[in-house]
Amino acid sequence: MTPITGLDLTGFTEREPGVWTDTAGVVLSVHFFPLRPDLPAPLHEFDRLRTALAAGVGAAGGGLIEAVPGTLHDVPAVRQLVKVPRPGGPHGQVFLGSWTVPKAGCSTVLKVQAAEGALTGMREATVMAQVGPEAYFRPHPYSAGGQFGGLPCHVGDDEQWDAQFPDHPLTLVRAALNRITPTVTLHEHFRQLPPFAGPSF
Fold first, then answer.
1. Which among 50, 101, 110, 143 is placed 20 to 30 Å from 1, CA to CA?
2. What sign does the dihedral 109-4-111-32 (CA atoms) show?
């Protein structure tokens, strides 16, 4: 199904081909897209790439928590953490972590996601109480001092708070992605494909 030939699935149960879940409600999935990647800039222009990614996520009503360069099985990739409003409800968010491995004519994606349940906003309220409202909200780090619309940027999403909220969906997504990333192996043919040079437009 995808060029991903191996990954550590400890704690996950397969629900359908390419999709697994764990007991905490984390959903892990792998994808292959036989098309030129829709990334807005090449990986070697990373500042431009992450600014454009953040603008796109914000325009769609979500928020890009972070985008960082890295590798999967020694192949250049981009890791993203995104938050979006929970579908069908007035409150709550869904958190998505992903690796996108782009090539010239295709890409593979590893995605981890988890949603807030009935109790929402506890992490945000607790962190705001600790740091104060003035220090809580901040300009988006990829916006040169501004915002992108969508969900606001704030310090409550920072990794430093994960230990205080071990069951929060963002903590679970970040932990799962960190654990699984070093275990991913890619098919050798995919690894040798020409690299993604940027959008065609």
1. 50
2. positive
CATH of the domain at 55: 3.40.1000
Query: What single-letter amino acid sits at 53?
Result: L
CA distance 170 to 130: 19
Q: What is the pLDDT of residue 119?
A: 83
Distance (Å) of CA 136 to CA 18, 77, 104, 156, 169: 38, 30, 40, 7, 20
Residue 163 inside a domain? The answer is yes
In a domain, 201, yes or no: no
H helical segments located in the chain: 46-59, 122-131, 133-136, 169-180, 188-191
Model confidence at 48: pLDDT above 80: yes
pLDDT at 16 over 70: yes
Residue with tokens 């003035």: 134
The amino acid at 104: A
Q: What is the pTM of this model?
A: 0.94
Please give the tally of structural domains in the chain: 1
| Run of H or E residues at 60 | none
Query: Rounded to an integer, what is the distance from CA 46 to the centroid of its chain?
Result: 16
Q: Please state, in angstroms and rounded to a whole number, the distance separating the CA atoms of residues 157 and 84.
A: 13
The whole-number pLDDT of residue 90 equals 74
Q: Is 187's pLDDT higher than 70?
A: yes
Q: Which residues form the domain of 161?
A: 4-191
